[in-house]
Amino acid sequence: MTTQEKEEFTLSIYSENHVGLLNQITTVFTRRHINIESLTTSESAIAGIHKFTIVVFATADQIKKLAKQIEKRIDVLKVFVFRADEIIHQEIALYKVSTGSLLGGNEIEMLVRQYGARILEITPEYTVIEKTGHKNETQELFEKLEPYGVSQFVRSGRIAITKLKKELLESYLKKLETDAIQLN
Amino acid sequence: METQSQLLMKEKTTKTTRMSGSEAVIQSLLREGTSIIFGYPGGAIMPIYDALHDHQKELHHVLTRHEQGALHAAEGYAKVTGKVGVCFATSGPGATNTVTGLANAMMDSTPVVLITGQVVSSLLGTDAFQETDVVGVTQPVTKWNYQVRRAEDIPAAIARAFYIARSGRPGPVVIDITKDAQINQLDFYYEPVKSIRSYTPEYPADLAQIEEAARLINLSKKPLALVGQGVIIGNAEKELLDFLEKSGIPAAWTLLGLSAVPSDHPLNVGMLGMHGNYGPNIKTNEADLIVAIGMRFDDRVTGDLSRYATNAKIIHMEIDPAEINKNVHADVPILGNVKKTLPLLTEKIVKNDHSDWLKEFEACQRVEYNRIIEKQLNPIEKGITMGEVVAKVSQAFDNDAIMVTDVGQHQMMGARYFKFKQSRSVVTSGGLGTMGFGLPAAMGAKLGAPDRQVCVFVGDGGLQMTIQELGTIYQTQIPVKIVLLNNNFLGMVRQWQELFFDKRYASTELINPDFQTIAKGYHIPSLKVSERQDLDEAIQKMVEADGPFLLEVIVEKEGNVFPMVPAGASVSDIRLE
Ligand SMILES: Cc1ncc(C[n+]2csc(CCOP(=O)(O)OP(=O)(O)O)c2C)c(N)n1
Q1: pLDDT digits (tens, 9 = 90+) for B366-421
Q2: Which of A16-20, A137-141, A154-158, B351-355 has the lowest mean pLDDT?
């Protein structure tokens, strides 16, 4: 087997909504020493089904094996693996700056407009700015704001949507039903 | 479609009976056909034991001397019967003592259901007396686990546990039940699980892959079949023989595939892997086609992967998708149960004969005989060899006993020199290599197959890891035949020290107790042999004994198991000395 280059993959993992599943999934990564770059989890569009979006750097071969090991967990329904060009993804970032520095000149407001961010809340003490985008974009805005004093900066994990026309999970669930009928 | 919690809480429309959670545990086990339980009581599981007390006729409880022993006994029972082995343990230390057994069952795909008692639900997370996070601790070593905190969830959880443990690639399942759930009342209704939407135990055969496999088999000049435990788990021994006999393909086996093909079958060319036979190892790199049947290319079988099966296309027949392309790239993967895929393949291949290729294996066998086997079986030196004891014991049982082993040199000698007529005749710890497995596993095997002779080979090291199970054997009068191959060493480790660490015997020599006195203390008849001339008679005494028997044989101190593929070497680098 050839040693492949590491690249970025986004895994969409669907599971039953069951206590302890996050642990079951993350131990598959830990055991193989693959670092999780980002992770978000919440209920999926289908009631009762949970969704995990996990970003990792790994080789294609590692990812294939990893996905099978995750799918092997009884309560995991399906794992879909995507390369960056197969999905549209976003992260959300929040920045807290002092309201004084916002009012001190128009530079911050310029940055907010230039970066397609928005002001979420203004109080006499602080102002919260929100930006969605890719990590490098939210990072860039952070670096631009820093000279004006950023007292807090947080960034979420990734959420992603596929570029495909059909809904992968729904077609998978339909297939499950027809397979079950054939097998019985 | 329902979520799992909805499934577990499903409205019961059919007639129900009011009972306690503990009684529901017993009733659920009976519905699953359980007739024997291996276990050990304690505070958090006392209500279940109390309920069991009313069902002693239908449910035989074997009180082991340690929870690890209970798990291994259940594994032995499962291996020889193909049924699910069932265990009970209490919370905290009871549960943690089972971890080695669970890990062993996980590695070797053995169906086991362990029910553990847990502290009352209101105390969960408070570091209560004997509380451990059993679900957390056992998660990496179970196929599935689940904590039940409400009496009404017990039947559905147990139904799921059995379905998961025995379907697809089998494995261990833990159900952790809080004490209040055991005590509270529920309306009992039992419905066996037939499917789980997030779990596909078996995939249907892909006919295009079967066509392609048949094409490769029909073209191949030097094909080699690798027979794994999947054949035994799938009860596909007949399907395998049909395939082998039509294709004429020589069959080599993994340690856990042993006994799937009778020892004297003309196509049986021997064992694969580190201490396997010379032919199948060396020929792996000459074969032009490998047909792997229900096996997972473990590193003890393949050695260095970059120099493994270098000239061969690979057909991999396997039930677990995660095993396909895990270690060895499969040119033709055939997912599914070999019980179903083998006949489809057999139908598509032409009848063939590979007698010239088979002759090459015979030549290898002669080399191995002259260099190794002859010296084991007919030694000229004074010391008794492990190989000669194994071969004599096998013969004394008419080559038709169930062989159980512990882990070490004696295990490899057992696999190499014991002979088999029927399947499900080997119980050994493969993937985990668990010392201490043998004695308790033998108890379970004998209770699962009361009409067969069960003989366990164990080293003086491994015996002392679970020696307390002699107490279980005495109390339960389980007629297992224990052959202790005593070399006063942790033999297998000593062998590696001799070969790879300049004979520096760091902490491998054992100063042992008098095992005869120990056997006597447990009221188990025993004999000790240190001279070759006494061996046959002692073996005969053991064979004829009605109850349990311990035969201790003092074997040569520094005997080695050969051939050997050193760890990390290629199968082509197999050493004959
Ligand atoms: C629980 C456990 N601890 C350690 C080992 C490592 N180990 C493998 S074989 C072996 C020696 C076994 O010695 P013995 O039981 O006397 O059998 P022999 O090899 O002499 O036949 C050891 C220590 C193991 N497999 N399992």
Answers
A1: 999 999 999 999 999 999 999 999 999 999 999 999 999 999 999 999 999 999 99
A2: A16-20
In angstroms, rounded to a whole number, what is the distance separating the alpha carbons of residues B349 and B337? 19
CA dihedral of B527, B529, B534, B540, whole degrees rounded to 10: 40
Chain B contacts of A50, Cβ < 8 Å? none
The answer to whether the CB atoms of B3 and A74 lie below 8 A apart is: no
ipTM of the complex: 0.90
Ligand 1: residues within 6 Å at CB?
Answer: B 406-410, 433-436, 459-462, 485, 487, 489-493
User: What residue ranges do the domains of chain B occupy?
Assistant: 17-188, 207-361, 382-554
Q: Which residue range is the domain that position A146 belongs to?
A: 90-159
Cα–Cα distance, B120 to B128 (Å, whole number) = 9
Could you write out the three-class secondary structure of B316-340?
EEECCHHHCCCCCCCCEEEECCHHH
B409 is catalytic: no
Distance CA B337, CA B359 (A): 32
**Cβ contact A20–B136 (<8 Å):** yes
C-beta of residue B549 within 8 angstroms of C-beta of residue B524: yes
For the segment B196-221, what is each residue's pLDDT rounded down to a tens digit?
999 999 999 999 999 999 999 999 99
CB B40 within 8 A of CB B89: yes
Does the residue A27 lie in any domain? yes
Please say whether the beta carbons of B47 and B179 come within 8 A. Answer: yes
Whether the pTM exceeds 0.90: the reply is: yes
**Which residues touch B522 (CB under 8 Å, ≥6 apart)?**
B470, B471, B473, B474
B382-554 CATH fold: Rossmann fold (3.40.50)
